[in-house]
Amino acid sequence: MKIYNWTKIQDRTLRTSAGNVWEKVSALSDRIHPDFHAVEEMFSQKTVSHANDMSDSAPMKKKSEVISLLDSKRSMNINIFLKQFKRANSEIASLISAGDTQQLGQEKLVLLQKIMPQPDEVEAISRFEGDETKLGNAEQFFKELIKVGDYKLRVNIMILNIDFVSTAAEMRATLNDYKSAIETTISSISLEQFLRLVLRIGNFMNKGRYAGNAAGFRLCSLSKLTDTKSNRSRVTLLHYIVEEVYKQDEAMLTFVEKLQPLLLSISRKSLDNLESELNVTKGSVSTISKAIKQSKEELIKEKYKDFIADVTNQLKEIYHQLDEVKNQSKKLAKFFCEDEKTFSVDEFLLELLTFLEKCEQAHTDNVRRKELEEKNAKRKREREEASKKKTAKKQSKRESEGEVDLVEMLLGEIKNGKTLRRTRRTERAN
């Protein structure tokens, strides 16, 4: 007979769910009586004879029957997963038992975690008393997996092992970047000199107004330097200040070069997100640690005892780093006279990075504008010189043409018999 692949509800579930639909179903009387003989004929396994067998009397061989205990779609997904290994099911189970993260790899372990056998599937496979060789490949894999003690815990430990190494390293690097960025910002003398210059210019411009005579300003005000336009096209107050700095003391802008790469490295990160991720990791470690202590597998307890202790110590170190960065953030807020209650170190550093990028852009704009002005001035000089040469050439030509016309006029008068008048110089000579 063929098998109807349904998902069987466990007896334990039925017993604990009082008043469920199946209690009512079992209490009903049969109103339809199926013809089980017809069902057997319609759904029996077909037999296939070999094409090369020429004898009518030769016995018919049954087609190889595969027994499926799992849902067809689930069985297909499991088989797709198993094809990645190109190993026997027993070998895969051995790798899981040994905790071989190198052979299994993170991607395969995560997929394995998603297709773990459900309680009803474990019960169905464990209770199967038929020919195991006829079970489908997915069922056979589950049968091998179930033999591994605490297989789910082993898989979770391996995933934690792989994830934690990369996660911990990334968290440490990020916290070090925050620390360097904050320390460099606080200790930057060139930034302080630049702020002093902006303060002086701002007080000059705001003299006699409510914003004048200021002793300092919030760092977010630096971005407003580009909002103050000059009378020159596309030139802002920031363009002017950067231009003056490059003319008089270029070293005053060294803070841009030093701070920008540090701020850029943390611009897409968040201290709050890092702390949340750290708390999630701590929760996972705690859950697995408890599961290991409760495990009946002594080998698991012995094998992963040192691993859990090492991970716990590393978490303490990362939390200590986080606390240091938080304390530095408070110091940063206090240093720049920000409200510590509402201060966000991520917003502050991102605001500063934006300003540094504007400084670079302002310098680029100034260089391009100067190059354009020099080109325009050069073209103007060339046009003026060309115009002078052209004017001189025309004047020379006119003078030359005037002399020729005078000679021709005198010769014509002589030919016509006209007596030329003597000049006073000629009369004196006589």
Describe how the helices and strands are arranged.
Layout (H helix, E strand, L loop, with lengths): L10 H6 L4 H7 L8 H7 L29 H11 L6 H10 L2 H4 L1 H9 L4 H9 L9 H10 L4 H37 L1 H17 L31 H12 L5 H12 L5 H24 L3 H38 L9 H71 L8 H6 L1
In words, what does this structure look like?
67% of the residues lie in helices and 0% in strands. The protein is elongated and about 155 Å long. It is an all-alpha fold and 430 residues long. The protein starts with 10 loop residues before the first helix and ends with a helix. Mean pLDDT is 84; it is low at 53-58.
Low-confidence stretches: 53-58
Helix content: 55-70%
Number of strands: 0
The whole-number mean of residue pLDDT values reads 84
Give the SSE order as H and E letters.
HHHHHHHHHHHHHHHHH
Q: Total helix count?
A: 17
Shape: elongated
Rg: 46 Å
Q: Characterize the largest beta sheet: strand count, sense, and whether it forms a barrel.
A: none
* Distance from first to last alpha carbon: 155 Å
Structural class: mainly alpha
The fraction of residues in strands falls at: under 5%
